Amino acid sequence: MQGVRKNNYTKSLAILVIVIVLFFLPQYGSDYAISIGVLIFLYISLGQMWNLLGGYSGLVSLGQQIFVGIGGYTAALVTEVWHQSIAVSLVVAAGVSLVFAFIISFPIFKMRGVYFTIGTWIVSEALLVFFRNWKFVNYDAGYNITIAYRIPMSQIYHGALVIGIGSVVLVYLILRSRMGLALMSMRDNEGAAEVRGVRLYRTKLYCFVISSVYTAITGVVLYLNIAYIKPGAAFGIDWTVCMVFIVVIGGLGTIEGPIIGAVVYVILRQYLYSFPGISMVILGAVAVAIILLMPKGIMGAIHKKFGVEVFSVRRRIDERLEDGS
Amino acid sequence: MELFVQSVISGILLGGLYAAIGVGLSLVFGIMGLTNIAHGSLMILASFFIMILSQQATGSVILSLILTLAIMAAISGLAQGFLVNRVLDKGAEPALLVTFGIAIIIQNALQLAFGADFKSIASPFASINVVNSKWVVITGEYLLNFIISVAVIFALHFIVRKTWFGRSIRAASSSVVAAELMGINTKRTYVLTMSLATMTGCIGGLLVGQTFGFYSYSGMSYLIIAFGVVVIGGMGSIVGTLLGGVILGVAQLLGAYFFGSGVQILIGYLTLLVILTLRPRGLLSNMTRK
Q1: What is the CATH number of the domain that holds B28?
Q2: Which of A89, B43, B234, B281 is the most buried (most CB within 10 A)?
Q3: Domain range for B46
Q4: Per the structure, how many domains does chain B have?
Q5: CA pair distance A152, B249, nearest whole angstrom
Q6: Which residue of A has its CA nearest to B101?
Q7: SS (H, E, C) A109-136
Q8: Is 0.90 exceeded by the ipTM?
Q9: Which residue of B has its CA nearest to A118?
Q10: Which chain B residues contact residue A248 at CB under 8 A?
Q11: pLDDT (tens digit, 9 = 90+) per residue, B155-201?
């Protein structure tokens, strides 16, 4: 018992040190390191939120780009058209995505399994076509987000840091709560969970809404970093492709997974920029290769080999027992 | 009024083509429960093969199609055997990501080889009007698309329902364990199913290439049409695909008739969402076996 507690202290201390080191990165890191950091934190957040849906609620969505797009467009409209601050655009993005997630939950929650997967994608494609034909958002031309040029990189970095770490903390807290238990029981056996008193619809709805709102907030900062928005890119399936990549490569249904996945994804993509043209081919091949070698992702492989877990939300039977049954 | 009738007729004919795009997806999902994201890209790869072969080597579209069918059956069979089969029993997401990976590889390899230019396959029927009356004009191309698509769908229906091979794939879809006990090699059955599904995609690729044209990234936009068609009909229902295609085709062209061509795709998607909300498992879902 003593050993376990000691181990926990070391772990907390290590996490604290890492956070402090990351927080002061703008003081000593190069511009390149900072820009990589921004991307990694934002993709961690995207990955965590997709994992909350796909890994824990069994809601495999191909439509989370809806909320990246909503976040990005809110940032553009609020700062460019209405000349308000970034803080306002964060609040508006949260509000709009909350309402939108709630509205579309009525039709898409009727669909299950693969129908849900495809339904969410169709919603996002419909939204893409709608935005292209919508005068209010400047049709297909989109917006330059000029406020992005005026804010220093270190501010964007700290915003991304807060969002990235916040997403990890949020998912951890959700999973340690009563709702987390409900989620995991649902994922393992929906029927049994419902019989034991889990409110399936409501739990899934909460999860969907939380994930969507947080993805939209991440979208605001993502587009402050990109500084230019167009419907085709904002609502493109590519966002969800990279979320799926990050989560499945890192380890589906683990908190560490999206962190590892985001680091691998961002660094790999940066490295592959030096091979223009063929870079996406290599990325696709790497994704396929990692999945074939480690079907449970990198974290799954590490856990199986060393039994290490950084963020334990475990209240279930040991995996080795499960395998033996 | 004339335009309305024209829209409905063209919608039905277009729907046949949509069904040909979607039916392979439906087959793969019905048999192995796999959401094959690579379907659209495999289809466009076939379009490129047909175009190149007919221009550079054979000079005949039919001969190129036959060659392409063989090539694509081999490619998709190998991809299924060496990549997808290995992760199929590890859950839905790894398999989904593998097909995603294959789609990205195909798209970008095509981009690398052929650039981003818009291509098309020459069609001898494009300018012939079969019916040319006051009410309605039917081009030979659309009619031929419809006839070929219906033929493909009924051929597939026949194969799955009546042949020994069809029985083995249906057996594998209802219970892998029972099928293997009966001496069916389910992994091999999956490989053959994927090849068969991709061959229907090749025909879809030919028709799409002649009618609309394509470029290296077209796969994803045709994939979403294929998904739409398949979910309206009910995943796994082969004949339902035809119904789904016709509904989507008519919805799009009537959308164009009432609201202008800019939003026709939007109307198509909204129709899809309404149908899915009312019948979340597709229209013919109670008739399908899985």
Answers
A1: 1.10.3470
A2: B43
A3: 2-287
A4: 1
A5: 50
A6: A284
A7: CCCCCHHHHHHHHHHHHHHHHHHHCCHH
A8: no
A9: B227
A10: 93-94, 97
A11: 999 998 899 988 888 888 888 888 888 888 888 999 999 999 999 99
